[in-house]
Write a structure and sequence with these properties.
This protein is 27% helix and 29% strand. It is an alpha+beta fold and 603 residues long. Among the domains are: 1-29 and 57-69, no CATH class; 241-369, Ubiquitin-like (UB roll); 376-598, no CATH class. The strands form 14 sheets. Strands 22-30-29-23 form a four-stranded antiparallel beta sheet. Strands 31, 32, 34 and 35 form a four-stranded antiparallel beta sheet that branches. It has a three-stranded mixed beta sheet with strand order 2-1-6, covered by helices on one side. α13 packs across α15 (454-467). The termini are far apart. InterPro entries: Glycopeptide_resist_protein (IPR052913), Vancomycin_resist_VanW (IPR007391), YoaR-like_PG-bd (IPR022029). The chain crosses the membrane at residues 51-73. This is Vanomycin resistance protein VanB. It comes from Micromonospora thermarum.
Amino acid sequence: MTVTLYGERTPPADDRPTVQVTAVQWPVEESAPAGPAGSGGRGRSRRTRMLLATGLATVVLASVAGVGAYAYAGDVPRGTTVLGAELGGRSRSDAARELRAQLDRRAAELGAPVTVRVGERTAEISPADVGLAVDVDATVAAAAEAEAHAVDRLVGSRTVQPVVTVDVARLDAALKTVVGDQGRKMTMPAITWSGLTPKAVHPKPSLALDPERSAQAVREGWLSDQPITIPLIEKHPATTAEEVDKMVAELARPAVAAPVTLTTDKGSVTIPPAAIARSLRFSADEAGKLTARVDVKRLRTALGDDLAKVEVPPQDARITLTGGKPKITDGKPGQQLDTSTLGEALLAVLPLTDGRKVTGTLKPAQPELTAAKLAGLGIKERVSTFTTRFPGGLSSPRSQNIITAAKDVDNTLVLPGETFSLNGHTGERGYAQGYKDAPVILNGKLVPGVGGGVSQFTTTLFNATYYAGLQDVEHKPHSFYFSRYPAVIESTIFYPDLDFKFRNNTDHGVLIDTSYTASTITVSIWSTKIWDVKTEYSPRRNITKPKTVYLKPGPDCIAAAGSDGFTQDAYRVFRKDGKVVKREKFTWRYDAEPRFICAPEPS
């Protein structure tokens, strides 16, 4: 007799798979003559029982296999829901579509403001403002990769939490407005100096948001319908107050207790405690770890001329005008301290009471500007020149001030990209620098003042750079118009408030050349010519007439004939190869200069 067992999935109307057993015939046990053990009759009965047992086992295995096939039909196990959406039994793409549809249905709920609590303050944050969203693909992947027994999938269900994303930086910025003054910055450990006395700054922990922990709290609490508590984290600096005090006692105080001797092949230099205090720096990194170092640049500044005993500074190459042509003079190398290890060597002996000596090594120091570099700057021709006239000859104080400024600026090299500042170059123009009293404009009238006349040199220099096509950075025309200057394109100066600056916006070096006669001052610019520059003027407009002002007679009274006030435009026109390339507009309004009369006002 043949027994055939097989499992067949035949989905009925409710789509539930069924395990069926077909073509089963049960054997009928007949009487048989007695025989020896193991006779055919008893053997057939035992085989029948074995076949039955085997068939039942096969039925059970087939049932389990069917259940597993049912539970894991599709990519997502059956019975799986996310945010109320049934994703079980679907492929990943179908599950993603269903989840997106569910998110659309719940858009209003998911887009509602989220209540957050930071310390004692509560606020609402818009999910869209901080990038709060459900990552559909990541959520479906998490649902598909879940591990569970097949039977559980058949008879039960499971809910998978969505994968939530948030923009950490935008969330942190939004939460900082909620924190307000509840937080506090970390007080970094430090050691400062008051003369030769070190002062300890003890560290204090910060109380602030931790961006990643804030983001995790929001991701976990977004869909809970409860206010989300955002933690404020206390963070302590790496260096403690006790360690700061120890550094003061074991390094800072001993460091300035006595001088240190710096020995070189060319002699010795004494490093006094004051220089040590200026160069011994204590600084903390972002984690609040305090470390000490010797700032060698500060040390060099503190030692000043004392280093001249052992060092020979290098000399840069120079360019001068000889016979109307640029001439380059090569620089010279020098010898300077090798500072690469000097700081560490000095730091090692500062805690000591004896043996406070360090050895310095002198190494060749090459000039920054070599003849080869200077030759490559393209200073080969005079690209512009400008001259203004002054009265009184060279003996007048005003003329002397003009010439003093011209000599100071003569032969100045401005490298490509550099900005030249006249105030920065000359410094304060006072009696100590050789300047004299001469008329200056102050509060709308001419009064005696040290350095009067330098504005004429400034105007001359401005025009030379203007016609060279160099970039104007800062200038200010006079309040009143003076006929010895070109209108609009002229400049006053007053230390330190009013300055004249230009930028070398070319790829070539710029050399400023100044010269003078008994009645003129000239500034020329040497470089490589790029532009042909001309000026076009608009007609004067808004003309006003001067009024007459009577001043108290005396040595401080300066009379003036007065001049009209007006507004005018000047256009700097750049030409190259005969074609206009660009135009720059300069506009200025001159006040009418009063007619100042040093006499009592007529009755």
